[in-house]
Amino acid sequence: MENKPYKNKCRNRIRELRIARGHNSLRGFAEFINTHLGYEVSASALSQLELHRRENPYWELVDVLSTYFGVTADYLMGKTDYNVRKEEVIKDREDKVTKSPEEELLMQQFYDKMREMYAEKEKAKEERRALKEDN
Questions:
Q1: Residue 53: which residues within 8 A CB-CB, separation 6 or more?
Q2: Is the whole-model pTM more than 0.85?
Q3: When comparing pLDDT for 83 and 70, which is higher?
Q4: Of 30, 31, 79, 131, which is most buried by a Cβ count within 10 Å?
Q5: Separation between Cα atoms, residue 110 and residue 123, nearest integer Å
Q6: Which residues form the domain of 53?
Q7: Coiled-coil regions in this chain (predicted)?
Q8: Is 1 part of any domain?
Q9: pLDDT, tens digit (0-9, with 9 covering 90-100), for 45-65
Q10: 66, 88, 110: which is the final residue of a domain?
Q11: How far is Cα 37 from Cα 31, in angstroms, rounded to an integer?
């Protein structure tokens, strides 16, 4: 079987994330998943996933774990180092874009001034064009 460089990352990531959440034993983590996450899994299946011993992992379990840990499935399986879900990036951007009422007012005043300047510029162009046509 071909050696895939992401296998070692997978081993470390799942174990590190599991322990970071306070689940030191695979058996205890399996019980937690069964009870609280609604997915039936054995400690043996978790071990196989952690050690990347299955060529075709249980994708439902990968989805459950990635959701629980708040990472992408690709990150969990070691295929990427980018560990933030797209929805979180979008929410983070929305949070950063939120403006106070004062900022909203300033932005509106800015846009109004820009529209006014543009209208004046267009009016001046039209006047120059009319003068050229008259000459």
A1: 47
A2: no
A3: 70
A4: 30
A5: 20
A6: 6-88
A7: 107-134
A8: no
A9: 888 888 877 766 778 888 888
A10: 88
A11: 10
